[in-house]
Amino acid sequence: MAEGEATIARKGVKFGQGFLTDIWYFAALSSDLKPGRPARYEILGEPVMLGRGPSGQLFALRDICPHRAAPLSAGRIVRDGQGEAVECPYHGWKFGADGGCTAIPSLTADQAMDIGRIRVRRYPVAESQGLVFVWIGRDAASEPDQPPPVFPGVVGGPPKLVDRMVFDAHIDHAVVGLMDPAHGPYVHQQWWWRSAKSQHEKAKRFEPREAGFAMVRHEPSKNSRAYAILGGQPLTEITFRLPGLRWEHVTVGKRQVLSLTCLTPVDARRTRITQIVWSDHPAFVLLKPFIAAGARAFLRQDAHMVDLQNEGLRYDPTLLWIDDADRQAKWYQQLKREWAASRGEGRPFRNPVEPAILRWRS
């Protein structure tokens, strides 16, 4: 890529502005996509129709029919003479999974028209571990050059818990808010978790990981009471990966818990949060209603703080980042800049995170 183009590619990486491209974004759970019933999603401000054909084939198309702009997601996915296609609800135009038009019912036999030249944008889509990812390229011709993420601890069967909501925030603010290690005693004050008075000095070891970093496996802090329900001697590792995937993998002997939080930008002001938990630990059978209620409370407390933060962000203040409590937020910004630079310059990604021990009080 030319130097000028590389500079343009970097412009969308200012904190709180723009989005990363040429990367996989979490879109939906596999179970969300029912055969023949497309659904509308908005990702990075663009309408995306996601659907599954009768054979199980996945569709990811721009959710605008090029004829009269009706949403394709309001139609249905059907079999036609060339395989499977989504049928527009307005005039029945059909589009295959590759985005090409396969039928225009209003044409008569003597009206010659090369309908194959009519297309809607196709997004590469992949299904992995019961999750659906969409590749958002910088242009329509961009194709994935890497597989979607794979997570540890996805045990057999469906997730034990799924919770979803939308934060009224740019993905940058949502990401650093959820990874922030110092807000817990103030935002999450439950008797079964901790209180503002229960604060200890902490030192955690971090290492670079693929397109991100991890707080390496360790015993949970003594003032984090919720781990007690797992019994035994739990060990946990918390990992972040671009563009917005954060997961905690807990092991208790042979038992596992994986709590995955997926952040997907809806647009510049909204971020969809999907929290998914898998586990083979018996606590998630015996105590599931209580664990689910706690997880929902946590997420909504974070959302409330986002609303409060927005009151200040309306005035576009300069944000003050400190060490070590804000080091993860700084790493996130460095990772974003390096991702944009590497893609713009056509070179391999070089993780800027270096191993470190971070110290803070919470």
Overview of this protein structure:
With 362 residues, this protein is an alpha+beta fold. It folds into 2 domains: 21-134, Rieske Iron-sulfur Protein (3-layer Sandwich), CATH 2.102.10.10; 159-359, Naphthalene 1,2-dioxygenase Alpha Subunit, Chain A, domain 1 (Alpha-Beta Complex), CATH 3.90.380.10. Helices cover 19% and strands 32% of the residues. The protein contains 6 helices and 18 strands. The protein has helices at 3-10, 171-179, 184-187, 283-286, 288-313, 327-345, and strands at 23-29, 39-43, 46-52, 58-62, 76-80, 83-87, 94-96, 101-103, 125-128, 131-136, 161-167, 201-209, 212-218, 235-241, 245-252, 255-267, 270-279, 356-361. The strands form 4 sheets. It has an 8-stranded antiparallel β-sheet, with helices on one face. Strands 5-6-7-8 form a 4-stranded antiparallel β-sheet, with no helix packed on it. Strands 1-10-9 form a 3-stranded antiparallel β-sheet, with no helix packed on it. Strand 15 and strand 16 form a beta hairpin. It starts with a helix and ends with a strand. Mean pLDDT is 90; it is low at 1-12.
Topology diagram in text:
Blueprint: H1 3-10, E1 23-29, E2 39-43, E3 46-52, E4 58-62, E5 76-80, E6 83-87, E7 94-96, E8 101-103, E9 125-128, E10 131-136, E11 161-167, H2 171-179, H3 184-187, E12 201-209, E13 212-218, E14 235-241, E15 245-252, E16 255-267, E17 270-279, H4 283-286, H5 288-313, H6 327-345, E18 356-361
Antiparallel strand pairs: 1-10, 2-3, 3-4, 5-6, 6-7, 7-8, 9-10, 11-17, 12-13, 12-18, 13-14, 14-15, 15-16, 16-17
Helix pairs in contact: 1-6, 2-6
